[in-house]
Amino acid sequence: MSDIHSIGLQQLIVIAPKKKKDKLLTLLNEHGAHSIEIVYAHGSANPSALAAAFGFEVELKKVFISCLVKNSDASQLIDILYEEYDFKKPNTGIAFTIPVEGLAF
């Protein structure tokens, strides 16, 4: 029996404008991401209400990407998205990780 807490993986979630999909997939593949899932999404929020509340425009055509990355790559990927893909600016994307404590396949 293996220790489920030592598998060393994070689930990375990236939500960004659909037009960035190809660049994001290239980045993830270069960093050894596994089990990449892509979902095309359309925001359900009222764009004008959201814009008024937060002071920005809403891009309704989104791509939702989920993948597994090594713990050692997770922070680096978040930093790259923040700095090089401008996730630090409004309307450019959001990314976060979730620890994977167990995996069966």
Secondary-structure element sequence? EHEHEHE
Q: Counting H and I runs of at least 4 residues, what is the number of helices?
A: 3
Proportion of residues in β-strands: 25-35%
Low-confidence spans: none
Kindly state the percentage of residues in helix.
25-40%
- Strands in their spatial order, largest beta sheet: 2-3-1-4
Q: Which class best fits the helix and strand makeup? A: alpha+beta
Tell me what you see in this structure.
The protein is globular. It is 30% helix and 33% strand. It has one domain (18-99). With 105 residues, it is α+β, with helices and mostly antiparallel strands. The model has no long low-confidence stretch (mean pLDDT 85). The longest helix is centred in the last third of the chain and has 13 residues, at 71-83. Strands 2-3-1-4 form a four-stranded antiparallel beta sheet.
Features:
105 residues; alpha+beta; four-stranded antiparallel beta sheet; 3 helices
In short:
The chain is an alpha+beta fold and 105 residues long.
Strand and helix layout:
Blueprint: E1 9-17, H1 21-30, E2 34-42, H2 47-54, E3 61-70, H3 71-83, E4 94-100
